[in-house]
Amino acid sequence: MDNFTVAIVGGTGNLGSALALRLGAPGVKIIIGSRDADKAQKAVDTLKPSLRAGEMIGMTNQQAVKDANFVVIAVPYEGQAQMVQDLKGQVAGKIIIDTVVPLNKVKPFVPAAGSALQEAQQILGDEAPVIGALHNISAVDLGDVDSPLGDVLVCGDNAEAKQKVMEIITRIGATAYDAGPASNAYVIEGLTGVIIALNRKYKSKHGSIKITGIGASSGH
């Protein structure tokens, strides 16, 4: 994958903004999406001086997804269902990367659909594959382009889409692991609550996860 476009809906939040900076590379176009086009543009104006390479523009969520190959959902869980509903009918042929974590006052819970990922997939049906990723990476480290990143567990039911998402994860400097089907998403999403608790207990902002015991030769 040489040239591709990533739309980050909810891109004005911590994770979306940090991911935008990490994605900055030749041939990569980053579109920051927001319900408010002015808010998206303000985020771009703030982020652009720190962008290493590539292109960055801001627009409404609906406009953002039109030209994108990948659509990252980076909104709080409370906003996910409406966001995905609003995008339905506009994301055929694209890959959805769901970073959403169901939290209630920073405590994880399992939504009725089984996970945030499965909820998004239920809404979209067969229109586009939803792949879960980037739940357990520190937004602070993600936004500091020189910081090392931990491991990223990637899950979903579409093997080809999952592989493409793993390639993007590798490009931003993290190690991607295929963590199985969409039915595993609730575990991965819930780990964020554990990491938040660890960060609070140990007064850190850098908690992430590391997978051990799997060699580089295993083709993760």
Task: Describe the protein's architecture and organization.
It is a single chain. 44% of the residues are buried. The chain is globular. The protein contains eight helices and ten strands. The mean pLDDT is 95. The protein is of the alpha/beta class and 220 residues long. The protein has a single domain (4-218), classed as Rossmann fold (3-Layer(aba) Sandwich). The protein has helices at residues 14-23, 37-47, 61-66, 77-87, 116-124, 139-143, 159-171, 185-201; strands at 4-9, 28-34, 55-60, 70-73, 95-98, 103-104, 107-108, 130-132, 151-154, 175-178.
Q: How many structural domains can be distinguished in the coordinates? A: 1
Q: Quick one: CATH class?
A: Alpha Beta
User: Which percent band covers the strand fraction?
Assistant: 15-25%
Number of DSSP strand runs? 10
Which segments are poorly predicted (pLDDT under 50) over 5 or more consecutive residues? none
Major sheet characteristics: 6 strands, parallel
Head-to-tail CA distance between termini: 18 Å
What is the average of the pLDDT values? 95
Q: What is the 3D shape?
A: globular
Strand order of the largest sheet: 3-2-1-4-5-8
Structure described in brief:
With 220 residues, the chain is α/β, with parallel strands linked by helices. It contains eight helices and ten strands. The protein is globular.
Sequence-ordered SSE layout with sheet pairings:
Elements: E1 4-9, H1 14-23, E2 28-34, H2 37-47, E3 55-60, H3 61-66, E4 70-73, H4 77-87, E5 95-98, E6 103-104, E7 107-108, H5 116-124, E8 130-132, H6 139-143, E9 151-154, H7 159-171, E10 175-178, H8 185-201
Parallel strand pairs: 1-2, 1-4, 2-3, 4-5, 5-8, 9-10
Antiparallel strand pairs: 6-7
Helix pairs in contact: 4-5
